[in-house]
Amino acid sequence: MRLFLYSLFVVSCLSLLLWTRPTAAVAAAESPLPGATSGGDAASTPMPKQCRLGKTSTQILGWRWKPGTRVRIYYLKNNFSEAEKEAFSRAINNWNKALKEIDSRVVFMIDGEREGAVETDGSITVLRGIPKGKDQVGQLRFFSLSNGVMYATMIISPDVTDLNALTSLMTHEIGHSLGLADCYECKRGTTAMAAFKGSNKGNDVYEPSECDKYVVAAGFANETGAQARVVLTEQK
Ligand SMILES: [Zn+2]
Asked: Is the pLDDT of residue 234 over 80?
């Protein structure tokens, strides 16, 4: 048996921060924030105008799938109903659409059920379980082995049964696997990385926002050393 050193990154996520800020309810995704200075037309603006770090846009973490990875998603056997898996598929398809646009060469493929957690390179096993930590509804455990193998397990709390909440949670967790950090302080509706409204409610985001796509693209551009298509800057 060969042993590999590995690093384990755990992203505990979606604490139940209940937001009561009235503006959150009416803020439409991607609408410019009040008081935002206009920064010229879209062609000359490196970051979409509505993206404000910590307000409508999240930060990037240090790890993500390698560019070109075809990520296989497995479900632990009998952990999810067909309807629940369909709810996940909506999130996965939306991310695939976004990843095509930003030319990351990462694609997610749904590959059916397995008896146990899969540990092959570029895989995610999704399962029901209790995420570590108080009031957590989901968790992504990302393993990076010294031989270059990367895989993840995604733990979905049994409390999350609402289909829209599951789509929202999968959108969020895939965001983590692409290097997006949580942004609990971000306005709900602006990023997939915002907090949940409750244990069985989503965060009103079912596909990556323009800002999410921008931040993911910036991460991949930095990693490959290729000419950056985007520049990650905080607008003032
Ligand atoms: Zn999270």
From this structure: no
Rounded to the nearest angstrom, the distance between the alpha carbon of 105 and the centre of ligand 1 is 23
On whether the CB atoms of residues 197 and 203 are closer than 8 A, the answer is yes
CA 180 to ligand 1 centroid distance, Å: 9
DSSP codes joined into one string, 98-117: HHHHHT---EEEEEEEESS-
Could you tell me the two tokens for 125? 């096993």
Report how far ligand 1's centroid is from the alpha carbon of 13 (Å).
3
Rounded Cα gap, residues 61 and 223, in angstroms: 12
The owner of tokens 């991310």 is 95
CA pair distance 118, 125, nearest whole angstrom: 6
Instruction: Kindly indicate the confidence band of residue 4, based on its pLDDT and cuts at 50, 70 and 90.
Output: low
How many angstroms is it from 172 CA to the middle of ligand 1?
A: 6
Fill in the amino acid letter for 166: L
Measure 34 CA to ligand 1 centroid, in angstroms. Answer: 27
As beta bridge partners, residue 60 has 180
6-14+55-222 folds as Collagenase (Catalytic Domain) (3.40.390)
CA of 2 to the centre of ligand 1 (A): 32
**pLDDT of the residue at 56:** 94
